[in-house]
Write a structure and sequence with these properties.
Layout (H helix, E strand, L loop, with lengths): L2 H20 L14 H5 L11 H12 L21 H13 L10 H17 L7 E5 L2 H16 L4 H4 L7 E6 L4 H9 L7 E4 L11 H13 L3 E8 L11 H11 L2 E5 L10 H7 L8 E4 L1 H5 L6 E5 L3 H7 L29 H36 L4 E7 L2 E5 L4 H14 L5 E5 L2 E7 L7 H17 L2
Parallel strand pairs: 2-3, 2-4, 4-5, 5-6
Antiparallel strand pairs: 1-7, 6-7, 8-9, 9-11, 10-11
Helix pairs in contact: 4-14, 5-14, 6-8, 6-13, 9-10, 14-16, 15-16
The structure holds pyridoxal-5'-phosphate.
Length: 466
């Protein structure tokens, strides 16, 4: 492909993108395909000769698009949102065009320096104290793994990386039973082991916070048993129902026990740009060593863009930094962000934040989040008043859960029927051993109508199953 053709296709695809978003409400939110259908429509062998871009694009629309679940659909209420606001998409096109590897300062100084400034813009937006720095990672899973490795190395006096974990004893990490599966997996791959991830029950108070008395008791019992407590992971906005730990209480225990702390605020962190939500969710955050939140979820930055704040980056650098001769740079001291993370190669993700935050301003981004929270509350009340439904967990920010009458299988039947209908998309979860239906609002273009219509759709589909 020559660059003139590239320009002409780039233009066509930009128009295609705008049309896609304009008409997206007409599409079923969740893909309506059966397993194997898309693979069967693709040729089993690669072409020997060149094919025209026209043909490729036609096949894209014919074969690929029917198999897409529309995450940018304004009535996407499943999981958590994965927004791609248009300015961040444009930035991503530029990132793709330049295609720089931003592993070291000198491999693209603008990327490194902008990353530092964007981290600081977000630090201010989230009201973290000066002194916090950080790094942009691909996902919260990677940030959490980096933090768990740091816990391990710090607790083993930096011997784990050198000697392996043989004979170093059982390293223990503590979190709430509401933690995300990325925490389990971080413990698997860091060599901690599932059995050494100690899950603490919730106290039943407030926002389903971890029972900190039980946390302190678990640490004491582990010390008595000769285990090595290494760190505590807290959550602000758990995936199941939005559980939020008491950060000040967790931090106090961590300080007394000299434990490294990580906070998973992957989803709810975005809402902390609104000062009015901080009192309930954020006090004590300033004591955490590592904090992750995903601008690629609720804030609007095209995937992938996960921010890890660090109170003192030295500990993570001591864990992950490696400097073979070919990566050494001469001259003045500079930041080389690949030393802060597990992968060496890195994209210019900061540009998406720069475009996003400048295009909307923090006030524009706050407005969306406030609307989502308000409409979630309204919808929850509407469902509560509709006879057959029961609210299971009350709204935490823009997430609540409900049940229809009947057993767990009935909940799944309703979820499946709603998703087959296609007007809205919901997913199920578990609460106290019972299946429930999650409702999560957060798509960037979603309107109050998109949210409120869901009550009627849920009622109508429920009736159709009777
Ligand atoms: C989405 C989510 C994660 C995982 O985020 P990735 O960026 O996909 O790795 C972790 N924790 C919570 C609470 C989440 O909502």
């Amino acid at each position: 492909m020559n660059w003139d053709d590239f320009a002409s296709w780039g233009e066509k695809i930009s128009h295609w993108a705008a049309d896609y978003h304009r008409d997206i409400r007409d599409l079923p939110v969740r893909a309506q395909t059966a397993p194997g259908e898309i693979a069967a429509a693709l040729p089993a062998t690669p072409p020997e000769g060149a094919e025209a871009m026209d043909t490729i694009m036609t096949d894209f629309e014919r074969i690929v698009m029917p198999g897409i679940t529309h995450w940018q659909h304004p009535r996407f209420f499943a999981y958590f949102p994965a927004n791609a606001a248009p300015p961040s998409m444009l930035a991503d096109m530029l990132i793709t065009t330049i295609a720089a590897q931003c592993m070291l300062w000198q491999t693209s100084p603008a990327a490194t320096e902008m990353e530092g400034v964007m981290i600081d813009w977000l630090r201010q937006a989230l009201d973290l104290p000066p002194g916090f720095t950080g790094v942009i990672q691909d996902s919260a899973s990677s940030a959490t793994l980096s933090a768990v490795l740091t816990m391990r190395e710090r607790a083993t006096k930096w011997r784990g990386n050198r000697e392996g974990l043989n004979g170093l004893g059982a390293l223990r990490i503590y979190c709430s039973e509401q933690c995300h599966s990325s925490i389990d997996r971080a413990c698997w791959v860091a060599g901690i082991g599932q059995d050494n991830l100690v899950k603490i029950g919730t106290s039943g108070r407030g926002n389903h916070a971890m029972d900190t008395d039980a946390l302190a008791a678990a640490i004491a019992a582990d010390r008595a048993a000769g285990h090595i407590p290494a760190g505590i992971i807290a959550i602000t906005g758990g995936t199941g129902m939005g559980a939020c730990d008491d950060l000040a209480a967790v931090a106090k225990i961590a300080r007394a026990e000299d434990l490294y702390t990580h906070l998973d605020a992957a989803w709810a962190g975005s809402a902390m740009i609104c000062p009015e939500y901080r009192a309930a969710f954020w006090p004590g955050v300033e004591h955490f060593d590592s904090i992750v939140f995903n601008p690629h979820k609720w804030l609007g930055a095209q995937f992938d863009c996960s921010v890890q704040f660090l109170r003192d980056p030295t500990q993570q650098l001591n864990t992950l930094k490696i400097e073979p001769e070919y990566l050494k740079t001469s001259g003045a001291a500079v930041t080389n962000y690949s030393e802060w993370t597990i992968p060496l190669g890195r994209r210019f993700r900061a540009l998406k934040l720069w475009f996003l935050i400048r295009s909307y301003g923090l006030e524009g981004l706050r407005g969306r989040i406030r609307n989502h929270v308000a409409w979630t509350g309204e919808l929850c009340e509407a469902l509560r008043e509709m006879e057959p439904f029961e609210i299971v967990t009350e709204p935490i920010l823009s997430l609540f859960s409900f049940r229809c009458p009947g057993d767990d299988a009935m909940q799944q039947r309703l979820v499946d029927a709603l998703n087959d209908d296609g007007r809205i998309y919901l997913t199920q979860g578990m609460h106290e051993g019972r299946k429930m239906i999650r409702f999560s609002v957060g798509q960037f273009d979603c309107t109050r109508d998109d949210v409120m219509i869901a009550a009627d759709v849920i009622h109508e589909i429920w009736e159709s199953l009777q």
